[in-house]
Structures are given as C-alpha cells and as structure tokens.
C-alpha cells in the first residue's frame, strides 16, 4: 500500500514539474536552446532529480524539449517557416479528404467523434495539455478516414503528427484559443452530420489557417521580446 502511495506522489510531482517547465518554455522565460540542467532544476524546485527527469521525458514527447549530445536536455526551436509549410499542406489536403470522406461516415464514426469531443473538452478545461494533440489528431483522422485515398491520408497523418507540438502550443496560448478550438470542432462535426460538406470543408480550412496564423504571431512576438 505504501509503495502505491509513493508512486502516486512521484507521478504528481513529475506532472507538476512538467507543467511548470512547460509554462516557462511557452512564456519565453526559457528561450530556444536553453539548457535544462536537472540538478539545478531539482534544487530550485525543491524536489529530487527523478521527477525532473520524468518531466523532461514528457516534454520531449511533446516536442518542447530535445536531447543534445554533451548538453543534455535543451528547449527545442520553434520554426515559423516549418509551421507555415506544414499547416499550408494540411490546409490543402485535409479539406479535400474531408469532402470525399463525409458521405461515407457512419453513425459509429460520429459516436466516436462525439466521445472524443467530450473528452477533449474535459482535458482542455482541466489544462491537461499532454492529451490535447492526441485527441485533436484522432478527431481529424476519423473525419478523413473514409476518403479511400490511402496515400494522401498517410501524408496527412504524418503532417498531423509533425504539427502535434504546435497544436498543443496554439491551444495553450489563451482561453480564447481553447474556446475557439472547442467551438470549431463542435461545428465541424455538426456540419458533417447534417451533410453540409462544402461548409465543413471551408470551416476546416479556416480552422487550420487560424491555428497557423496564431502560432506565427506568437513566435514572432516572443522573438521580438527576447531580441
């Protein structure tokens, strides 16, 4: 029993450390390339190195941190040009796949999407950022899953994985960002349910473009402040 309690405390401390490190990275307090020294962070936060190490592994999975030989963990770079290219490709391909997929979506597909949206809403409101990208990717993937274009779908799934880090960042920027994401996902699924394929495709394009522009503005603003 005591061992289980200790494990729960360790997970809680690691999550809290990840939340604090994520906040510092997102705010620009830790700029791109900043070295995240486990010993110093552990002393500053008053915890052992184990939850710090777990937190850094979690943030590396989110793309916010990367491991560099002879330096250890450093804050990853955020690339405006990469964002522009990845989201432009998504904006071109996802609406095309959606148009082909929507007529073939089944009630079971819509039930699954409703479940994802409900879970997505809970995670957004609870600020559990680690799952935002995963749920966003699952929702988009189901919407396009019946397009019968496997090669294009494979490209889009790869793009969704590559933009996962940026998606989480965009959602975390403000309460307005999370609220708009909720509203756009709800409306997107509603339009698909009612068979408004043209409206759904147009909304999906705006949804992707909005995320792209918000991210580019955020990164440009943060770089101006740190210059």
TrEMBL record:
InterPro entries: GntR_C (IPR011711), TF_FadR/GntR_C (IPR008920), Tscrpt_reg_HTH_GntR (IPR000524), WH-like_DNA-bd_sf (IPR036388), WH_DNA-bd_sf (IPR036390). Residues 11-78 form the HTH gntR-type domain. Keywords: DNA-binding, Transcription, Transcription regulation. PANTHER family: TRANSCRIPTIONAL REGULATOR, GNTR FAMILY (PTHR43537), TRANSCRIPTIONAL REGULATORY PROTEIN (PTHR43537:SF41). This is GntR family transcriptional regulator. It comes from Paraburkholderia denitrificans.
